[in-house]
């Protein structure tokens, strides 16, 4: 089990409560009960002297048998037994260990009570003076095992009370710890949502009327989230505005370029074509940026319609296969189950096309790109996998390739390298359709990258 704050708080509270209850009980018994340790001792000594005197009297008046008789009720009732010595001789005829004889010898020379513990048995000895000043030593033998037995024989109502206090303390500590940690849990879930991209995540409204350090923390968190939200939104807006503003001069540049083509002679045609290509690339880049900002802000004016995912992928595979032949490669369907998704066909097409085109670009010459669609009816999920036979992507880059403009170092140098926006757009489109994308390296069959798109579907 994880060592959570909740468990720590719970255990500490509980320990404190149990300690306090125990301490209070001891104090109450000692002080309100009216007897302190010394008083108990005095009473015990007095009782020992009285019993001792009785035992001596019985022995002196009625002899050994009466003494044995006197000792019997003690044995029946409790773990205690009594012994009476004259010198070091036990008068009821019991044999005793050597150490007890020593204790008796010592007790005969002092005025107070002396004790000896042997394992679980304790002997308490006291000198008693009989008729004609005859000295005796009275010994009580107590067995601690018996006290545990006595404990188990405690009245039922005391046991019930102790168990009730125990249960109450558990419930009380649980409620207290739960209320302390509930704000932390709310804060944690809000942080989690923020980390997952939900910039509208706030904590303070969920805390109710709190006014303590935790509500201060929640306020700080909300301010931080507000600030991040503002920054990210303004940055996205700036990007969208710039892209939008660049479109018009670029369109005018293209028109001017066409006019130049018509009016300029052969020598400049090569340079003009180059400028035209760059204009075209710039236009594509701006288009991708606009797409990205649109999908990020989840704005799409189109309504979802049922899309036959299998046919759409088949068409994309056919087109890609046609292109692939120039490099001696093939793009082929290795598994295809019919399934339909609810979505926007153009968006889905561009999302999947980017993944297939990437695979085609990175697969080694003469190898195949394998595409498969499988449906998982119980979960209503379509799984589209695109696998190439290229170098794959290092583990550290597997998540990063979905970030805008991120390209693995060596693919930046390729002449036909893209802008690094394709997978970012793919991920946003698939997210908009309620699905997810991930990439991982193939472990068998010469490696390569597998990009897997999971999307909710209806089986046809
Ligand atoms: N199949 C693959 N094999 C190896 N690396 C890949 C693969 N697919 C993507 N990558 C890496 O991920 C990076 C990002 O891919 P992404 O599709 O986002 O951008 P791009 O293809 O470079 O450009 P764009 O798609 O915008 O034209 C690529 O530049 C490449 O480094
Ligand atoms: Mg790409």
UniProtKB/TrEMBL annotation:
The keyword ATP-binding applies. Residues 241-459 form the Histidine kinase domain. The keyword Glycosyltransferase does not apply. The chain crosses the membrane at residues 12-33, 158-180. It is a multi-pass membrane protein. GO terms for molecular function: ATP binding; phosphorelay sensor kinase activity. GO terms for cellular component: plasma membrane. Residues 178-233 form the HAMP domain. SMART domains: HAMP, HATPase_c, HisKA. It is found in: Cell membrane. This is histidine kinase. It comes from Oryzomonas rubra.
